[in-house]
Design goal:
This protein is of the alpha/beta class and 256 residues long. It folds into two domains: 29-106, no CATH class; 107-239, Lambda Exonuclease, Chain A (Alpha-Beta Complex), CATH 3.90.320. Helix content is 48%, strand content 18%. A five-stranded mixed beta sheet has the order 3-4-5-6-7, with helices on both faces. The chain has a two-stranded parallel ribbon with strand order 1-2.
Length: 256
């Protein structure tokens, strides 16, 4: 069966790290991703912020049950049956999600952006104009005035802290990839890409950022390199790991 290759930011990240990781997951079909508490929290917060009407249709709160007792085990089994198809969050997670949601909407810039008319959790498809490879992005929010928003939970939303996160998780690549994808799909200029960063720990400080034109261009060059690498791997059916030889390791200039 022929594999359908549609590139997304997460797939580009795998290609950037090691093409063999992309092959393992998307060609060999080995998916080892685990729904960690942090991942559940992030997804649930996105739902609460961008699609509050969907919350009760996707999530439910786990009751306080002592599952060590016979009665507790029976009650938990009953709850699991009732919660079938829903993602279960703990009471503590739900409280944290509500505090973060409140902090976001109390932030003037974040509240203003979220108040703009638009569509949340929208899937945008386009074809890369250079390689001809199909691409896809799920935008947290796209306004009718062509502004893209992306919500990030983080340990440190300060300028220095979030800059480190941008470098580590290649958020500048995401910004460039989404801006170019939007302009390709809608045939109009993107009027801005904004990150709404909220800290996971209390008091859940919030900041709103945009990247410089230079950083967007750097992200664009990096995703273009990723697509070129992917095209080469696909053509040769060779998917490299971290390298077969001995390599020099530089300890500095990483993670700034």
């Amino acid at each position: 069966m022929k594999t359908e290759h549609i590139l997304s930011k997460s797939r580009l990240d795998l290609i950037n790290k090691a093409p063999s990781l992309y092959k393992r997951k998307y060609i060999d079909g080995v998916n080892e991703q685990v729904e960690t508490p942090a991942l559940v929290l992030g997804k649930a917060l996105h739902c609460r912020v961008f699609e509050p009407a969907e919350w009760g249709l996707r999530y439910t709160i786990a009751p306080d049950i002592d599952r060590r007792t016979k009665d507790g085990k029976e009650r938990w089994a009953e709850f699991q049956q009732q919660a079938e198809g829903l993602t279960v969050v703990t009471r503590e997670q739900d409280d944290a999600i509500e505090r973060m949601n409140s902090a976001i909407y109390k932030h003037p810039a974040a509240a203003y952006l979220l108040g703009l008319k638009g569509t949340s959790e929208i899937m945008v498809n386009w074809v890369d104009e250079v390689s001809g490879i199909p691409c896809r992005g799920i935008f947290d929010r796209l306004t009718t005035s062509a502004i893209i928003m992306d919500l990030k939970t983080t340990d440190d939303a300060s300028p220095k802290g979030f800059a480190r996160s941008c470098h580590k998780y290649r958020y500048h690549v995401q910004a460039a990839f989404y801006i170019d994808g939007f302009e390709r799909a809608y045939n109009q200029l993107c009027e801005g890409f904004f990150f709404i960063a909220v800290e996971k720990s209390e008091p859940h400080l919030v900041a709103v950022y945009y990247l410089t034109a230079e950083d967007i261009q750097r992200g664009r060059e990096q995703y273009r390199d990723d697509i070129n690498k992917f095209s080469e791997c696909l053509a040769a059916d060779e998917w490299q790991g971290y390298g077969d030889g001995v390599q020099e390791l530089t300890l500095f200039n990483h993670g700034k």
